Amino acid sequence: MTDRLNRRGFLAASLATGGLVLAAPGALRAATGGTLRFGLSAYPPSFDMWASTGTAAATVKLMIHRGLLGYDDKGQLTGELAESWDVDKDGVWTFKLRKATWHDGSPVTSADVKYSIEQMAAPDSTAYYRGQMGTITKIDTPDDLTVKLTTKAPTATIPVWFAHYNMPILKKGEPRTSTLGAGPFKFVKAERGQKISVTAYDKFYRQGEPKVKGIDAIVYSDENLRVAALEAGDVDIIEYVPWAAMDRIEKNGKLKLDTVPGPFMYLTFNGSKPPFDNPLVRQAVAIAIKRSDVVAAAFYGHGAPLNHLPIDKSSPYYNADLADSWKYDMQKAKDLLAKAGHPNGFSCTMLSTAQYGMHQQTAEVSQAYLSMIGINVKLDLPDWSTRVEKGNKGEYDIAVMGTAADSNDPDGLATVLDGSQGPSFNRSYKLPTPEITKLLQQGRETFDKDARKKIYHEMEAQVMKTVPAVFLCSRSQGYGLAENVAGFVNLPGQLTFYSGLTLSETALG
Amino acid sequence: MARYIGQRVLVALVLIWLVSTLVFMVLHLVPGDPAELLLASGNTAPDPQAVAQLRTEMGLDRPLMVQYASYLAGIVHGDFGVSLRDGTPVAQQLMLRLPRTLELVVAATLIASVLGIPLGTLAAIRGGGLADRLVSLLASLALSTPVFVVGTGLILLFAQKLGWISAGGYVPFAQDPLRHLALLLMPAGTIALSLWAIVVRMTRASVLEVLERDFVRTARAKGLGRRRILRRHVVRNAMVPVITVIGLQMGTLLGSTVLIEYVFNWPGLSGYLVSAVEARDYPEVVGIVLTISIVFVLINLIVDIAYAVLDPRVKLAA
């Protein structure tokens, strides 16, 4: 074959290949026809609806499923499958269901709710809220549309739990991977690793919703390609806009950028051994790092320094008097170290990951600042999976983490702060926090808003003093939208990963 | 020939067994727990009991040797197992994704050969001339530009600036042939570029060498036309090393199209491998590596046989 090709043949062949592209622009692009194309950052690792399977999975869950409660555009709790909810003086919660139907047409009943809660609490459960559901001691279903929940101790956070995206109600008898939902979109098909298609459910309980014919959720793992796909018009919405591309999207007249300050970066400690078992050393770390440099290096300026708990100014639980507790003060940090018995500093390893730029850059900035107070940090930057395991096993001295709280309620921070919950990569290792644990429990059992505010104020003061983690900055979490997309809202604060809730109101103009 | 192939297959089987055992063992030595990773996907702390339950469901609570034995028994029966993450049969995913990567590699090889062999020959017969220097310069440039730079550049130009084509993606051929080929063009072209450079250099060197041979002089002396000498004698003889290199490159490409598949969102084998490794999805990783080694061995076998076809002097002696 090869020896028959001469120069003329070669020219003809290359012209033909080039011609294919030149002849066909436009025709080679995908057509939409009322279907919203959503650029996901990952394919859901599994369809286990009650397990925590990440942001992309949450968005897909919220297309198909609904929980008892949800959030409106302002981030206020709102009824989804439940129309109203209330608690009596004994702490028994009553949920009144609305007349919703499953995608197979059958009605959503209290039996489905009971089944879902029981499955989540069952011994073979892999549910994210397995422990929480275990505190529900009795589920009464006096009629088809009423559910009454009795808990071990009175629990004020029940509505917040039932609004979580990992808490969809599934139809009685369905497996935990069920794609038969009661949400705005019906599951059509999944091409593993690439794409999930859903179509509008015409009997969704909210009149006039959903507003698009369906959604194609297409996976773009590479963040730069995800942006390129939005710019090229291949998709209408993308999640997880990389920080480096935020300015560019904002300046593009055909695109919109919707960001909220929500998820946050922080440092965790190994509390099982010196030197970080000493609160003085942790206090020194807390005031030794200039937060604005972390924001600049890791997030291209798209974030905000955090010298306190990640509770937004707009929250009723924000404490202005504690906001600057961890203000940068190198001299004071040095004094604290000396007081702790390390006048000449010490050496330690910092665990982070080279897989995600924001984790690595946060580690590098922290390393530089800690060296200024005499702490010689050696970075350990394995892949993410190894980092998770090392974190769980406490194979580090100090570590970099990033996450979002479960909700905007201060109780949503329990998973990051509560040392009694057992070892996990997303909180400090074997660092007891008896006062914080006690206050968190009090907060859960307290229904009066002002009393709760006082409890969480005290808790934040405890965190500032005992430093179970060092919060560094919040980062802008962004969605990129084509200009003709309306109704999609990036929910405020820690709720940003719940934004899939608003897909039912999303329209293509 | 049959005996030769038989022996090669036997050696290949042993090699494949070694590779799969090695991958299985190394994978289990590397830190990272698939159950924990799956349930911690949102950077959240999973319930420890939920993790224990999932480990049991995944069969990871059994001793390593038991897991290895059951895995090996599966392989012998042609069963690659199921994904730890969502229970999808690994064989099914392999059947879906292997052809896509092969298509990418074959398309790239075709482009590289069709453009590389004639240009390499041209450079050789014009040795030292303008054409030679131009081709050599282009080849150096192509070889030294990383694939992700070329890939990203193509996307920037054709998708973002000109808006001619989607920024990567994949459509099955049966669904839309034209769009399928259009989407294939950029990733295949990107891979082809560096492969082309290798083919050009190899062809040029090889043709130059053959041109010096006595039989070429003889052919010229007996009055054969330039064109005929080039086609019948020079290029054909010069092809043996070129084919070897192309074959080896194809094998290597199978496992190294990762960046290209990632940059262009091409749902092939290597993208699948990366996500499986990240999730520590043991059956998937082993299944993919096994498949790649089988194909690699096969390609080498085909290259060996191609020698004999091209050059009757090569005897396939055992």
How many alpha or pi helices of chain A? 15
Q: Structural class of the helix and strand makeup of chain B?
A: mainly alpha
* CATH homologous superfamily heading of the domain at 98-317 in chain B: MetI-like
The proportion of strand residues of chain B reads under 5%
How would you describe this protein?
The complex is a heterodimer of chains A (509) and B (318). By secondary structure, chain A is α+β, with helices and mostly antiparallel strands. Chain A is built from 15 helices and 19 strands. In chain A, α8 runs antiparallel to α10. The N terminus of chain A is likely disordered. The radius of gyration of chain B is 24 Å and the shape is globular. Chain B has 13 helices and no strands. The longest helix of chain B is centred in the middle third of the chain and has 36 residues. In chain B, α7 crosses α8. Chain B is mainly alpha-helical and 318 residues long. Chain B has a domain of 220 residues: MetI-like fold (Orthogonal Bundle), CATH 1.10.3720.10.
Helices, strands, pairings?
The complex is a heterodimer of chains A (509) and B (318).
Chain A lengths: L6 H17 L11 E6 L14 H10 L4 E3 L5 E3 L2 E6 L5 E5 L12 H12 L8 H4 L2 E8 L2 E6 L6 H5 L22 E7 L3 E6 L13 E6 L3 H9 L5 E2 L7 H6 L3 E15 L9 H10 L2 H9 L3 E3 L24 H10 L6 E6 L5 H16 L2 E6 L3 H10 L4 E6 L10 H4 L16 H12 L3 H18 L2 E14 L2 E2 L20 E2 L1
Parallel strand pairs in A: 1-10, 1-11, 14-15, 14-16
Antiparallel strand pairs in A: 2-3, 4-5, 5-7, 6-7, 8-9, 9-10, 11-17, 12-16, 12-17, 13-17, 18-19
Chain B lengths: L1 H28 L4 H6 L8 H11 L5 H13 L13 H36 L4 H15 L2 H15 L15 H35 L2 H8 L4 H31 L1 H6 L5 H10 L3 H29 L8
Helix pairs in contact in B: 1-13, 5-6, 5-8, 5-10, 5-13, 6-8, 7-8, 8-10, 9-10, 10-13, 12-13
